[in-house]
Amino acid sequence: MLKEEWTYLQLAEEQLDYSHLQLQNVNPDVELNNIDLVQIEAYTARFARVLDIYTQKILKTIDVLEGYGGGSLRDILNRSEKAGIIDSANYLLSCRILRNEIAHDYIPNQQRKIFVDVRDKYTELKSAIQQTRSFLKQTGWLSV
């Protein structure tokens, strides 16, 4: 199951990476055209999807494999931090708050702020996933 979930995460990451590259030169401080807005919406949705797969599938599955498998997301993240699977539970919790803002973004002028927040968190999320990948390789639970 972990290998299948990891495959889904990799596919979602590829889409997120593509969107990130497409928006490298977009300046959120100037008037955004409709094409930019569509790309931003795709980017933020892809960020939320990667985060969901990573936290709700991968980290929860690891928690089960580690012998826990219960509790809140905060509990899982705290155990993951303690085990060295991630660097910071608080960082991923802040990403989760951002994910909820993305899911409930009904105010058009919030789109710029959310875009900037996602762009700021992108590299650290990628780093967290890489750290988890290294952990899974060390344990032998993943060979990719």
Please provide a written account of the structure.
This protein is mainly α and 144 residues long. Helix content is 76%, strand content 0%. The protein is built from 5 helices and no strands. The two termini are 14 Å apart. The relative contact order is 0.16.
> How many beta-strand elements?
0
User: Which spans have pLDDT < 50 for at least 5 consecutive residues?
Assistant: none
Radius of gyration: 16 Å
Classified in CATH, the superfamily is Nucleotidyltransferases  domain 2
Q: From the helix content, strand content and strand pairing, which structural class follows?
A: mainly alpha
Number of domains: 1
Instruction: Supply the CATH class.
Output: Mainly Alpha
Instruction: Tell me the CATH architecture.
Output: Up-down Bundle
Question: In brief, what are we looking at here?
Answer:
By secondary structure, the protein is mainly α.
Describe the protein's topology.
Layout: H1 2-22, H2 34-65, H3 73-83, H4 89-103, H5 110-139
Question: What tags apply to this protein structure?
Answer:
144 residues; mainly alpha; Four Helix Bundle (Hemerythrin (Met), subunit A); 5 helices; elongated
